[in-house]
Each structure stands twice: as structure tokens, then as C-alpha cells.
Write a structure and sequence with these properties.
With 249 residues, the protein is mainly α. The protein has one domain. Helix content is 78%, strand content 2%. A two-stranded antiparallel ribbon has the order 1-2. Belongs to the OXA1/ALB3/YidC family. GO terms for molecular function: membrane insertase activity.
């Protein structure tokens, strides 16, 4: 019994090892090194930035759906407030109208969840890159034939070592942007802000800072790039949505 169990365990390990190393880790690693060699003048920090942008472009359909859903959700919240005001003297009708509105504008969150999941996967892959190292024989074994050996890797970005942990500056940037983003969102709904919202406003950026402080600096670079991309995409979607709404009206 144990013999067959060991065989099955080995087969499962081999399968997951193939999926992780051959289908996920190696392609991401090779794209990163290709960017390092051919696009960013051998600057690994900018290679991570470009890799993040490439990833976000590939995920653009999911990102657009996610941002569109966010805009629609904000519009639904505004409509709910209007219904609450218009039917404040008739709670039963108010609930019914809100139910109809929510049902009509049902939003599927899976596009955003999938997009975030893929980005989290890339974060883990980048962590493995720095955990296992990007020099020596392992680098040679991991590279595809069409990717040139880069020699010694420059892991400094604006004077900061991408592999260093316990960095304050870059996680601080992430925390500040998160604070600003949450503050702007809360300000839009200031009349409905709860204590839990205020706790989230403080604790989530603080928790993010702490986690990134524990991890290599490259994580902060990846997240900052992704956040800026999301901001620009969100601005574009909102502008497009408002323009479309004006045309309808």
C-alpha cells in the first residue's frame, strides 16, 4: 500500500513541479531576463517595471471589466441613495426598489478576483527568483536558447538593492498611496463611513507596509507599478463612462 502511495505522491510532485517550474517560473524568469538584456539596458528594476506593465496589458480585458464594475458599483450606490431619499416615507417600497436596482445591476466580481490572483502568482514567482538567486549555473539552466546569458546581474534600482529586506522607503510609498486611495474613496461616501471603514483606512496600509518591509524590495516595485497602472486605467474608464453617460442623457 505504501509503495503505491509513494508512487502517486511522486507523480503528483512531478506534475506540480512541472507546472510550477516549466509552465510558470521559467517563462516569467526568461521574460524578465530578456527585458533586462534587450529593453532596460541591464537594469533589473526597470525590467520588473516593464514585466509588470506587460502582465497588466495581458490582463487588460479582466482589468477593464473590474474597473467597469467598480464604476457601475459606485453608480448603483448613488442610485440607492436617491431611492432612499425618494421613498423615505415608504420603507417597503424603498426596499423593493433597491432590490430591483441591485438585481438589474448585478456585478460579477470574478474578473477582478482572477486578475488579482494572477498578479499574486507573479509576486510569488518574483519572490522565488530572488530566493533562488539569479546568478551562476542555475541561471544558465533556466534560460531558454533565445535568451542571452546576461552575465553579472545589476540588482540595483535608483541605488537600492532589489533583494534587500527591511527597506522603509519603498513599502512606505505603497502605504502612502494606499492611504490616499482609501481616503479619496471614503471621502466620496463620507456620510456612510463607519468605524470599521476608519479601521481599514489605518490598518490596511499599515499591514501592507509591514508585509512589504519583511519581503525583498522588488515586491514594492512590482506593487507600485501595478497600482499606478490601475490608477491610470481607472481614470480612463471613468472618463469613458462619464462621456458615454452624457451621450445617453
Amino acid at each position: 500500500m505504501s509503495y503505491y502511495t509513494n508512487i502517486i505522491s511522486y507523480q503528483n510532485y512531478t506534475m506540480w513541479s512541472f507546472i510550477w517550474n516549466d509552465l510558470l517560473y521559467q517563462p516569467v524568469f526568461n521574460v524578465l531576463i530578456w527585458l533586462y538584456n534587450n529593453v532596460t539596458n541591464q537594469n533589473l528594476g526597470w525590467s520588473v517595471v516593464y514585466l509588470t506593465i506587460v502582465l497588466r496589458i495581458l490582463l487588460l480585458p479582466l482589468n477593464i471589466i473590474g474597473e467597469r464594475n467598480k464604476v457601475r458599483d459606485e453608480q448603483v450606490q448613488e442610485d440607492i441613495k436617491k431611492i432612499e431619499k425618494d421613498y423615505r416615507n415608504d420603507p417597503m417600497l424603498q426596499k423593493e426598489e433597491i432590490r430591483k436596482l441591485v438585481k438589474k445591476n448585478k456585478i460579477n466580481p470574478w474578473a477582478k478576483v482572477l486578475s488579482l490572483g494572477i498578479q499574486l502568482l507573479v509576486l510569488v514567482l518574483l519572490y522565488q527568483v530572488f530566493l533562488q538567486g539569479i546568478t551562476g549555473e542555475k541561471l544558465l539552466r533556466t534560460l531558454y536558447d533565445w535568451v542571452d546569458f546576461p552575465g553579472s546581474i545589476n540588482i540595483y534600482f535608483f541605488g537600492f538593492n532589489l533583494g534587500n529586506r527591511h527597506d522603509i522607503l519603498w513599502p512606505g510609498f505603497v502605504a502612502i498611496i494606499l492611504l490616499a486611495d482609501i481616503y479619496i474613496d471614503l471621502k466620496k461616501h463620507k456620510e456612510n463611513v463607519t468605524k470599521s471603514d476608519l479601521a481599514y483606512f489605518v490598518l490596511f496600509p499599515a499591514f501592507s507596509f509591514y508585509i512589504l518591509w519583511l519581503l525583498p524590495m522588488v515586491k514594492s516595485v512590482f506593487i507600485l507599478t501595478s497600482m499606478f497602472f490601475s490608477m491610470l486605467l481607472g481614470l480612463f474608464i471613468r472618463t469613458l463612462f462619464r462621456s458615454h453617460k452624457k451621450q445617453i442623457n
